[in-house]
Design brief:
Keywords (chain B): Signal
Low-confidence stretches of chain B: 1-26
CATH topology of one domain in chain A: Immunoglobulin-like
CATH superfamily of the largest domain in chain B: monomeric porin ompg
GO biological process, one term (chain B): intracellular copper ion homeostasis
Shape of chain B: globular
Mean pLDDT of chain B: 88
Structural class of chain A: alpha+beta
Number of strands of chain A: 32
CATH class of one domain in chain A: Mainly Beta
Helix content of chain A: 10-25%
Distance between the termini of chain A: 45 Å
Radius of gyration of chain B: 19 Å
Largest sheet of chain B: 12 strands, antiparallel, barrel
Oligomer: heterodimer
Largest sheet of chain A: 6 strands, mixed
CATH superfamily of one domain in chain A: Cupredoxins -  blue copper proteins
Pfam family, one (chain B): CopB
Structural class of chain B: mainly beta
Organism (chain B): Sandaracinobacter neustonicus
Shape of chain A: globular
Largest interface: A-B, 42 and 27 residues
Order of helices and strands of chain B: HEEEEEEEEEEEEHE
GO molecular function, one term (chain B): copper ion binding
CATH architecture of one domain in chain A: Sandwich
Strand order of the largest sheet of chain A: 10-9-12-17-14-15
Mean pLDDT of chain A: 80
Distance between the termini of chain B: 31 Å
Chain lengths: 699, 236
């Protein structure tokens, strides 16, 4: 047994691979051994983990586009294993998902040889797709350089693989969750908090808020399922002082990977502008941000150019704020950096739980006006939903006058601008955390274009206003998730629109939207105990924060056809029993989704749960319908769908095989939140007629 | 009859247990888990040392489970009450299971019942159980249990509890009259040292009711009253 091998030691292995001549096809062989052993991850204690070549994480695998890759994986675990090449376009039986494409997994003691030719470049990763081995450490970064050399000239490059570690056996974690779904939540609301809320919001309003949550039998503090995590940066906790060398004046590429089991993370480097240049391995038009939120399993390539001769903190926080990591980026290790204060915890709102409140079950999507083939029953439902708008507005006596582009309901929820409410002049040096404590006034944001702030995407989709189209290119594109101070009308924190789906309630029958009336406060307000209302909060006013809407493909996609049909995937579950499913059925009980080879389909995710789910498709990229032009929608393999939201993607089904489509929160997947998507070269030729959804059930 | 029930219990348990240890063969859903919780407390009532226990557990998947339950009371040097239930539990509504099976009593006298009922989480997060017991000797009763958690902190929890038995028949051998026969209610405080282990301190009112109380008084017996009970609860 040995100490965890720092990530950097894996580089010599990978470094050898880089000396070959660019542009030439190479045969590259990698040998991996996986086993269970004790490692000292946190100083002073040795925990049982699953290693690859003796370390957590496994070695950084560096390849070049066009390489013919052979990976020999020897399984020294006492159980079946399988490594999945996350985001890679590979033949189905080399994708590494047991039970798919006839791949049975790798038996204990056996060696399996993966073989594939790389048809892409970018930042990816690899991890176990069997049992609960990934949670225990079986993961690593996988970097593919373009065949003609680096796509961006940089002085330095770092891979930053963010993961979590817990001393607990993952099998025990899921047993604990099955026994008590709130097992890891030590931040439940208490009676003293009820009294504080009563003092702030009034007893009647507070009691009716508690009663509403009680009726739903849900917990507004259920932001993340598992705690006791230590965040790791390339396998190192903060205590081991992860360090990334970076000098003044250099252009540095950071390849961020969220390889965690369960943690969405907010990433920032206070003092540095980060320019996002790729998402999930695919190049995007550069976007400048101060911070970005990483869904589980996403990767982002970021450029930074430090202008000062000093160390910068790399600060990573999980969105439940229960774990964080601090790394030093600078000219030399050991230089002092100051960690920002952790942000306040969040408290969910009922508005995020539209479906739980007896709202219409049919989703309205951001593209409801599109012409879609009427043969699919799901499509028919969507069209019907679209025809129901516009709708009558309920009596909103007492509400302040709202802009014509903004329904009162949305104004009430802080979704859009309220020009009548002027803002105090804020001080820019005040962090939002301090502002929330009343220590100072709020910082001044750069005022965004008026159109942008008055028109959230939900409304734009409904034709209520004209959205500002994402700028396809240009040097000054910035993250737009935080629109403006004015939009919020005075909440302590802005509502951050991460672009994780649209509000399906927008444009629905608002008479059923009674939760808007019982909401204790607005999104971005602070409750009596310092928690911030709303899942999508945390970033301060004026911050440049990445939204999915800011992602625009750097190059036009070859296939910009309109989709021929729509497949609706409802994200379903029962938190109380820790049951997770898609379309109400756990994996194994659900029929597969069949797609004709070559077909272009829309997949619409409707999140009916109170958690955000990072939905991942193997084998192919899908394009995010984020408002970008049809040929410039960003390609990704993971899309986060926020609680109660709806998000669609477009898929060109050009990789035949059986592909897992699942939530990448690993304990959700383990509980059944997965589906099989089959791309088969049978049935009518693509474009002739939409294939019937259940035609190939016999597969 | 009892031998039959006990052997049924033991025959079923290993069958389930086998699948528990099966190494993740059924990946991603439909796996078998198990849960066991137990609670015991001590009190001194009318000069007698009294120990109460209440344990239950399940083995199974999300929708189908085998549940077992046992509860009872030991007072002085004898068991006053002791019962065991073995139930099949089926998740029918989001928050509720329908259960059916058998209950066998060892004390105060040996008898068995068919059981049918529901168990789950009612609105306002009320843990709720409602079971009907149809005795093979002809007695029929209904038991209702409810409790909820009031958190003073995330570890210190007050749990108001209520349990009552309603008899639809007289049971002369047990000196039980039809109607509500017993009530047990109070507040249990617990401190969750871990999620799985908590010492408890409860103030409980336990009393016979109605005709059953009248029969007890006739026999010169105590009908019950307030007690302070200290104990532990744990689960795994």
């Amino acid at each position: 047994m040995q100490l965890p091998v720092p990530f950097i030691r894996a580089i010599p292995l990978a470094g050898l691979l880089l000396f070959a001549v660019p542009g030439q096809t190479r045969d590259v062989t990698v040998d991996l051994v996986t086993q269970r052993e004790r490692l000292e991850v946190n100083p002073g204690r040795r925990d049982l983990v699953v290693t690859l070549n003796g370390s957590v994480p496994g070695p950084v695998l560096r390849f070049r586009e066009g390489d013919n890759v052979t990976v020999n994986l020897r399984n020294d675990l006492p159980e079946m294993t399988a490594i999945h090449w996350h985001g890679l376009l590979v033949p189905g039986h080399h994708d590494g998902a047991p039970g798919f494409n006839g791949f049975p997994g790798i038996a204990p003691g056996a060696t399996y040889t993966y073989n594939f030719t790389l048809r892409q470049s970018g930042t990816y990763w690899y991890h176990s797709h069997a049992s609960t081995q990934e949670q225990a450490g079986q993961y690593g970064a996988l970097i593919i350089e373009p065949k003609d050399g680096p796509d961006v000239a940089v002085d330095r490059e770092h891979v930053i693989l963010l993961t979590e570690h817990t001393p607990e056996d993952p099998e025990r974690i899921i047993r604990n969750l099955k026994g008590d779904a709130g097992y890891y939540n030590w931040n439940k609301r208490t009676t003293p908090e009820l009294l504080r809320d009563a003092g702030k919001f009034g007893l009647g309003k507070t009691l009716s808020d508690r009663a509403a949550w009680g009726r739903m039998r849900m917990d507004p503090t259920d932001i993340a399922d598992v705690s006791n995590y230590t965040l790791l940066v390339n396998g190192l906790p903060t205590a081991r002082k992860p360090f990334f060398e970076m000098k003044k004046g250099e252009k540095v590429r950071l390849r961020f990977i969220n390889g965690s089991a369960m943690s969405f993370m907010d990433v920032r480097i206070p003092g540095l502008t980060m320019t996002i240049i790729a998402a999930d391995g695919r190049a995007v038009e550069p976007v400048q941000v101060d911070e970005f939120r990483m869904a589980v399993a996403e990767t982002y390539d970021v450029l930074v150019e430090p202008q000062e001769d000093r160390a910068y903190p790399l600060w990573v926080e999980t969105i439940d704020r229960r774990a964080n990591a601090l790394a030093v980026m600078g000219p030399a290790p050991g230089m002092p950096v100051e960690a920002p204060r952790p942000r306040p915890m969040q408290i969910l709102m009922m508005g995020e739980m539209g479906h739980a409140m007896g709202a219409p079950a049919q989703p309205a999507t951001s593209h409801a006006g599109h012409q879609m083939a009427a043969t699919d029953p799901d499509t028919a439902i969507l069209n019907a939903a679209a025809e129901r708008q516009p709708h009558a507005m309920p009596d909103m006596a007492g509400m302040p006058p709202a802009a014509s582009s903004c329904t009162p309901e949305h104004a009430a929820m802080g979704h859009c601008s309220m020009p009548a409410a002027p803002e105090p002049a804020p001080k820019s040096e005040c962090s939002a955390e301090h502002a929330a404590m009343g220590h100072c006034k709020m910082p001044e944001p750069a005022p965004p274009p008026a159109q942008d702030s008055s028109c959230p995407p939900e409304h734009a989709a409904m034709g209520h206003c004209t959205p500002k189209p994402p700028t396809p290119s240009g040097p000054d594109r910035i993250g737009t998730a935080v629109p403006a101070t004015a939009v919020q009308g005075g909440t302590a924190f802005p509502r951050v629109d991460y672009g994780y789906g649209a509000d399906p309630m927008a444009g629905m029958d608002h008479s059923q939207m009674n939760h808007a009336m019982t909401e204790l406060a607005r999104e971005g307000d602070v409750d009596g105990s310092g928690r911030v209302f709303g899942w999508a909060t945390g970033a301060p006013y004026g911050a440049r924060v990445l939204s999915m809407r800011d992602l625009v493909a750097a190059k036009p996609n070859p296939d910009a056809r309109a989709p021929t049909r729509e497949i609706v995937i409802r994200i379903t579950g029962n938190m109380e029993r820790y049951m997770w499913s898609l379309n109400g059925k756990p994996f194994g009980e659900a029929p597969p989704v069949d797609v004709q080879f070559g077909e272009r389909v829309r997949i619409t995710f409707v999140n009916e749960t109170m958690m955000a789910h990072p939905m991942h498709l193997h084998g192919m990229f899908f394009e995010i319908e984020n408002g970008a032009p049809a040929d410039r929608m960003p390609e990704k393999n993971v899309i986060a769908v926020a609680p109660g939201r709806t998000q669609s993607v477009i898929l060109t089904a050009n990789e035949p095989g059986e592909w897992p489509l699942h939530c990448h929160l690993l304990f959700h997947m383990d509980s059944g939140m997965m589906k099989k998507l089959i791309v088969a070269n049978v049935g009518p030729a693509p474009g002739d007629a939409p294939a019937d959804a259940h035609q190939h059930k016999a597969h | 009859m009892r031998a039959l029930l006990v052997s049924l219990l033991f025959a079923t348990a290993p069958a389930f247990a086998q699948t528990v240890d099966e190494p993740a063969a059924h990946l991603h859903g439909n796996r078998t888990y198990s849960y066991t919780s137990a609670e015991a407390d001590y009190s001194r009532q009318s000069g007698t040392d009294v120990v109460n226990w209440d344990a239950e557990g399940w083995i199974g998947g999300d929708n189908h489970k085998f549940w077992w339950k046992t509860e009872g009371e030991h007072a002085g040097s004898a068991f006053e009450k002791a019962e065991v239930q073995a139930l099949y539990s089926r998740n029918v509504w989001t928050f509720f299971d329908v259960q059916g099976g058998v209950r066998t009593d060892i004390e105060p006298d040996r008898r068995a019942y068919a059981v049918v009922g529901v168990q789950g989480l009612a609105p306002q997060l009320l843990e709720t159980e409602l079971h009907a017991f149809i005795g093979f000797k002809g007695d029929v009763s209904i038991r209702f249990k409810q409790s909820f958690d009031l958190r003073l902190t995330n570890r210190f929890v007050l749990e108001p509890q209520l349990e009552t038995d309603l008899y639809l028949t007289d049971v002369p051998e047990r000196r039980v009259g039809s109607g509500f026969s017993t009530i047990e209610t109070g507040v249990q405080a617990r401190y969750e040292v871990t999620r799985k282990f908590a010492p408890t301190l409860a103030v409980t009112y336990e009393s016979k009711l109605g005709e059953t109380a009248r029969l007890a008084r006739e026999d010169g017996e105590d009908t019950g009253g307030w007690s302070v009970r200290g104990g532990v609860r744990f689960w795994f």
